[in-house]
Design a protein that fits this description.
Length: 438
């Protein structure tokens, strides 16, 4: 029998109605054997995530304030799910232990992780699956980094003992036994880790959208769903702001060659998006796979005659950034000019220092640091073999009435990145999408 690992996000496990949808999905195929559960998310726009309420408990105890009201709301949330599902289950003892730990100033990670822990217990009970606590099989090193090999070895042996199981997402344990949470995309990462340990044939990531979209739906009306995307394309888009799946979450399954299927809990019949290592399937007539971008960048612009003949010029500029703990994003250049794109947040309090140190290091004829830049990445595996792709990007931007401030193309020709003024960001993305898709 093949093995599928499923991860359900907080929106998919927000209440009893969603639990029923999840159970129908899991039970529809016998090879859906391991389920990773998130904490209950928002039931509506005015609602609050359980994890956020747990963080509030932590902050209140640090300020020696009472947590009874908010803790009661958390407990009531789970009790309602249990009662609405008609389960013969009580979490009273678990809540007593958790409240006692909070009042005795338990760590922030422990408190935050209890949302997933409790929800996984409820889901396991409802499905009739075993419950496997993530702290028993997911491990971190002393410095807080994820211990991939120990986790894979131990978790594989644990899962071999359970034909069907639910595992809480978001956390694992430190060498001293304390709870440690993942910093970003926690439950997605847990799902990926479990898929690798289970030697899964497929990792299904269930959320509230029917796959990875070609563009941000807040900027482009009804963007198309990407049917197939490679790990490399996903990483490029996720890094530039696409949010369905954090790029860090793909590494465990990418190393194992396990495909990911992004699916919609509310529309389980939809194909969703397949994320694969390699594919011969064309990205479609659209040529590009997707568009993503971010605001909040600054450009350090340098000019100097004969710069290209000055050995070590670029290295000395980057040394200044390194000494000031500033990461660079892109370095577009020409014979006598060099631009370095950095995060505005990283440089905003260091502009004068960086400018003076660069002047001493390379003696430029001109230097300026300009804020208000947005970067847009156009990504696609078919771009390398499609004539006129760059022309069409520039055409779409021009027809949107936007001026391009920067152009950078990766050597793999997987993506083309342009920089525009932040005020033109939305119009530029809409123009590019309209050129390729509509």
């Amino acid at each position: 029998m093949s093995v599928k690992v499923l991860k359900f996000g907080g929106s998919s496990l927000a209440d009893a109605e969603h639990f029923r949808k999840v159970a129908a999905i899991v039970k529809s195929e016998p090879d859906r054997r391991y389920v990773v559960a998130s904490a209950p998310g928002k039931r509506n726009s005015d609602d609050e995530k359980v994890t956020d309420m747990l963080y509030k408990c932590y902050e209140l105890t640090r300020e020696d304030q009472d947590i009874d009201n908010i803790f009661f709301c958390i407990k009531r949330r789970y009790d309602k799910i249990i009662n609405d599902l008609g389960l013969d289950l009580s979490l009273d003892k678990e809540f007593q232990r958790i409240k006692m730990a909070i009042l005795h100033h338990a760590g922030r990670d422990y408190i935050a992780s209890r949302g997933e822990y409790l929800n996984a217990i409820v889901l396991a009970n409802y499905l009739g699956f075993d419950f496997v606590d993530a702290e028993k099989g997911i491990f971190f090193c002393d410095d807080g980094t994820f211990d991939a090999e120990k986790t894979n070895s131990v978790l594989s042996k644990i899962l071999e003992k359970h034909e069907y199981a639910v595992i809480p997402g978001f956390y694992g344990s430190m060498p001293n036994g304390t709870i440690k949470t993942f910093t970003r995309g926690g439950s997605d990462f847990t799902g990926s880790v479990v898929a690798r340990a289970a030697r899964a044939d497929l990792y299904e990531n269930w959320t509230d959208v029917s796959g990875f979209l070609m563009a941000d739906p807040r900027l482009v009306k009804n963007p198309k769903v990407i049917e197939t995307i490679t790990y490399k394309e996903l990483r490029e888009l996720a890094y530039m702001g696409a949010t369905v799946l954090h790029e860090d979450a793909i590494f465990p399954v990418r190393a194992a060659g396990i495909p990911i299927n992004i699916k919609n809990t509310n529309r389980p019949a939809d194909k969703g998006t397949m994320i694969v290592k390699e594919t011969d399937i064309p990205a479609s007539k659209d040529v590009i796979t997707g568009i993503a971008g971010k605001k909040g960048f600054s450009t350090i612009i340098l000019e100097k005659d004969m710069m290209n003949g000055e050995l070590g010029f670029g290295r000395r500029v980057l040394d200044v950034l390194m000494n000031n703990r500033i990461l660079f994003e892109h370095i577009p250049s020409s014979i006598d000019t060099l631009s370095v794109v950095v995060s505005t947040d990283d440089i905003k309090d260091k502009k004068l220092i960086v400018a003076e140190e660069i002047k001493k290091a390379v003696h430029p004829d001109y230097i300026s640091i300009d804020d208000g830049i947005a970067l847009i990445a156009v990504v696609g595996r078919d771009m390398v073999s499609s004539i006129g792709t760059a022309y069409r990007i520039f055409k779409g931007v021009a027809e949107a009435g936007v001026n391009i401030r920067m152009i950078d193309q990766g050597s793999s020709e997987l993506n083309i990145i342009i920089g525009v003024e932040e005020k033109d960001y939305e119009a530029a993305i809409q123009g590019i999408y309209n050129e390729f898709v509509r």
